[in-house]
Amino acid sequence: MMQLLSTLLLASGLATATPLNIPNFAQAAIDSGLALKGLNALATLSALTRSGGTCTQNKIKYRREWRTLTKPDRRKFIAAVKCLQGKPSVLPKDGTVPGAITLWDDLAYAHAWRTFFVHMSATFLVWHRYFLFTYESLLETECGWTQGLPYWEWGLDEHDMRGSPLFDGSDTSIGSDGVFIPGRPDFILDIFGGPDPEPVRVVFPPGTGGGCIERGPFSDTVVRIGPFPLDGTPWTNETGYGNNPRCLDRDLNTNPIKRWSTFRNSTELILNYDNIREFQGFLEGDPRVTTEKPIGIHGGGHWAVGGITRDPIISPYDPAFYFHHNQLDRIYWIWQNLDFDNRKDVFGTGTWGNFPPSPNVTVEDFIDVLPHKPAIKIKDSMNTVSGAPFCYVYV
After folding, report:
1. 373: helix, coil or strand?
2. For labeling, which of 113, 364, 378, 392 is most exposed (least CB within 10 Å)?
């Protein structure tokens, strides 16, 4: 592993770099992903110097890009996720979430009820990091997956989503595109909350699917809770969290990747911002920070998968959610580890766009994924090799 990291550093011109003295990259290195690989290698070397507690070198999980796993390992991972989808829910049977039949439903619910507290808020990155860890832990304890959680490098699929090893519909993918639905209009997304009272309008062309996943693993996945109205229409536990079985849909689309989630987008995000407000604001496309990049790499990945993954509330029903957010955590993790001592804070309040107004969040506040993971202080989510609770790096 160390030899591989050293090779990547040399190839990227980073072998003698320090966290605060990263050299300028040639545009070709940025656009090809070579620069991002070099930054990842440097971040890994930095992180490994801080491993401690129960996170000894032999226990560190290495999170890898999907296509770098062997095909047998991909099949093992798919089997573990399917196993998790078949495990019974552990939520209380008190009528709060009548649609929670399996652990897969539990995870969707965990994200759903926190949606307006963990997006466009101070806890976006740290809570999703803990959520991914919860998922990874359940895959291990319930279904025997002992390797690191794989991620999806969007830049590799900028020109062909349907041919991606993640979405090609083979038995080593997470299923194909949705059934193609012709004649659909553009999607129009109006984003409010910026300095101008008028919204920022973003237009997406339809993708190459739109219907239920056509073939491959997870084409039989059942979505139960939701959908939730996003226009303020009231809903109850029975209508929102009830058992409303339906298929998992996708609408693969390279357009959002080309606009917001390329190698250049990811690399420039890491290099251009040295504080959490700007870094997270541009990553999320927070209109209070930027109206020029209103979707960010976060939205780019969600809209590239399409279907339920566009839904900000119940997107974890698609296994693609975890690959996408693991890549987001990877970008955040690289950024942090290039200057770790100065990148362990949060910025903002505890509600979406500070609506309704809420107190500022600090690293002394708590996050949780109850009942699956207990509350931890935000400050304990910063070091992923402390052993309290995390023990992973990205390669």
Report:
1. strand
2. 364
- Residue pair 259/301 in contact (Cβ under 8 Å)? The answer is no
Q: What are phi and psi of 204, to 5 degrees?
A: -115, 130
pLDDT in tens, the chain (395 residues): 545 554 544 444 444 344 545 778 999 999 999 999 999 999 999 999 999 999 999 999 999 999 999 999 999 999 999 999 999 999 999 989 999 999 999 999 999 999 999 999 999 999 999 999 999 999 999 999 999 999 999 999 999 999 999 999 999 999 999 999 999 999 999 999 988 899 999 999 999 999 999 999 999 999 999 999 877 788 888 889 999 999 999 999 999 999 999 999 999 999 999 999 999 999 999 999 998 889 999 999 999 999 999 999 999 999 999 999 999 999 999 999 999 999 999 999 999 999 999 999 999 999 999 999 999 999 999 999 999 999 999 99
Residue type, 350: G
Query: pTM above the 0.85 mark?
Result: yes
299 phi and psi angles, rounded to 5 deg: -65, -30
List the structure tokens of 268: 């420039």
Distance (Å, whole) CA 168 – CA 177: 8
Q: Which residues contact 10 (CB under 8 A, 6 or more apart)?
A: none
For residue 76, give the nearest of 157, 146, 162, 165 by alpha carbon: 146
